[in-house]
Write a structure and sequence with these properties.
546 residues, alpha/beta, Chitobiase, domain 2, TIM Barrel, 2 domains, eight-stranded parallel barrel, 17 helices, 35% helix, binds ligand TNX
């Protein structure tokens, strides 16, 4: 084929730009993409030497200082001298809090010939500056190999303050060490919340000192398989304290979830008397998700849960407790229960679903009494309502999470109207238990679930394309990894990555900077890094050009 001169010029221009954009550089592995990057050209590189000194106003034991040393050791095989407050020199790393920088997670990373400066108002912000530095070193392999870093200035803060992943050790138990391993991966991508789904039909996974029966019975659905199988096990309060601190060091807050009034077989297996009048004698078998519920008109439900919420509130420093509220099959429980029916009459209710208000009024009173705020799954009860009418009776202090496929636009609209905060976990984009590709490992294709590909995940805009004023109440995102088919940590990470990278960018990066092609490029070094660090991930073969 013969090109015209004009065409040739175009082709060479294309080849030149392609060579530049495919060339490995200091931005090749930045993920989530920072919101402001300034390349500084024409200046000399920073060199890491045996004389590189750290200037800091942080206390000696600050986690960020250990993290800085770890990064230097792992990426360039060098540790820096801890010079403290007055350090100086021509290879200086300054890692200091600076109250002048607005925003809890806002960091400024400035690399010049003689100095790397990482500043932010909090240690959380500094931690993110370090994570970005780590990715600069990961991406710019040739310079890193020479212990060099090219000058750059990154001034970055997240689009959303709530960037969560959810684990479900209730369905299949995950030992503490595995949860820590997961938190390590979350921290690399600037996630800051781990929602722990601690109770469900399949298991009760948290020690409650006043009710030891909950774990004695509820944590071992298959006792003959040993104490630590995927079906068995629970976290002691001491283990959770340690886990909470481990997460906090990495700027991850753990939010506990106790799912009620449905998803409660593990409680009912221990205390059958907490169910409805007609379910007392049903044998409670933990294993499957079933329709049983706690009774709405049973004082013992409220006293036992007050005890539980008290201990949970004392244990978890988070200001929030998630109380579930999803998939309550009212017609098989409260509709048939003598006690619930008489309560309805007494209160003058016409629909059983109104008992949800009564139930959560009582439960949320305990949550507030112990100084916490509730989170609930957003259920718009369109099944029992006339078409296009939605029941919305949530109290204002409840943060809701939208999840049901198709209902998110309605959840956004109703929460805005009623003044509730909202977290985005729409099934279409953020369900990490859905298979990543049709025919991908059959065990993940149970229930004929919909497929959520990496590209679909990446298309997720947590603002749902709305103007900022209409989504100001959206706090952030949550990727949910339900555990029915997820039996161990390798499966957990396989289902999370690389889709968790796409969601991390959805939570952090402004839409105007997000781009699928750029994401794919930046993903590769990160996948290699995860694999090198022993994380089982899924390689997205379907997006590799053939
Ligand atoms: C729905 S999402 C559930 C979970 C299941 C999940 C499976 C939500 C609030 N409830 O109990 O594990 O679907 O995808």
């Amino acid at each position: 084929m013969i090109f015209s001169t004009k065409k040739l010029k175009l082709v060479s221009l294309f080849l030149l730009t392609a060579a530049c954009s495919f060339g490995q550089s200091n931005t090749s592995a930045l993920l989530p993409l920072p919101n402001h990057i300034e390349q500084i050209t024409g200046k000399k590189n920073f060199t890491i030497t045996s004389q590189t000194t750290v200037k800091t106003n942080l206390p000696k034991q600050a986690f960020c200082l250990f993290e800085l040393q770890r990064i230097l050791r792992d990426r360039v095989g060098q540790s820096a001298i801890m010079g403290g407050f007055t350090a100086s020199g021509n290879s200086l790393i300054e890692l200091s809090t600076d109250p002048g920088i607005q925003g809890k997670e806002h960091y400024v990373l400035d690399i010049s010939e003689n100095k790397i400066s990482i500043k932010g108002a909090t240690q959380d912000a500094l931690f993110y500056g370090l994570k970005t530095l780590d990715q600069i070193l990961l991406g710019d392999v040739c310079n890193t190999a020479n212990k060099q870093i090219t000058p750059i200035r990154i001034d970055d803060e997240p689009r959303f303050g709530y960037r969560a992943l959810m684990l479900d050790p209730a369905r299949h138990f995950l030992p503490v060490e595995d949860v820590k391993f997961y938190i390590d991966q979350m921290a690399k991508y600037k996630y800051n919340v781990l929602q722990l789904h601690l109770t469900d039909d399949q298991g009760w996974r948290v020690e409650i000192k006043k009710h030891p029966g909950l774990t004695e019975t509820g944590a071992f659905r298959n006792p003959q398989t040993g104490p630590n199988g995927p079906d068995n096990g629970y976290y002691t309060q001491q283990q959770l304290k340690d886990l909470i601190q481990y997460a906090a060091d990495r700027n991850v807050e753990i939010i506990p979830e106790l799912d009620i009034p449905g998803h409660t077989v593990a409680v009912l297996a221990t205390y059958p008397e907490l169910g409805c009048t007609h379910t007392d004698t049903i044998q409670k078998i933990m294993g499957k998700t079933v329709d049983l519920m706690l009774c709405a008109n049973n004082d013992k439900v409220y006293t036992v849960y007050d005890d539980i919420i008290k201990e949970i509130a004392e244990l978890f420093p988070s200001s929030k407790i998630h109380l579930g509220g999803d998939e309550a099959v009212i017609e098989k429980n409260w509709t048939k229960c003598d006690r619930c029916q008489s309560l309805m009459k007494q209160l003058g209710y016409t629909k059983e679903s109104q008992l949800m208000n009564y139930f959560f009024d009582k439960i949320l009173a305990s949550v507030r009494k112990y100084g916490k705020e509730p989170i609930l799954w957003c259920e718009l009860d369109n099944i029992r309502m006339p078409a296009n009418e939605y029941l919305f009776d949530y109290p204002k202090d409840a943060t809701l999470i939208t999840w049901r496929a198709g209902l998110t636009p309605k959840c956004i609209e109703l929460t805005a109207k009623h003044g509730n905060s909202l977290i985005m976990a729409p099934g279409e984009y953020t369900y990490l238990d859905y298979p990543q590709l049709k025919g991908d490992l059959p065990e993940f294709n149970n229930w004929g679930m919909p497929v959520t590909t990496l590209e679909t995940c990446y298309q997720f805009d947590p603002g749902y394309g709305l103007p900022a004023a209409q989504h100001a109440h959206i706090q952030g995102i949550c990727g949910t990894l339900w555990g029915e088919a997820i039996k161990d940590i390798n499966r957990v990470t396989y289902m999370t990555f690389p889709r968790g990278l796409a969601l991390a960018e959805a939570g952090w990066t402004q839409m105007e900077y997000r781009d699928w092609d750029s994401f794919k490029e930046r993903m590769y070094p990160n996948l290699m890094n995860l694999m090198k660090q022993g994380v089982s991930i899924r390689i997205p073969f379907e997006i590799v050009p053939r």
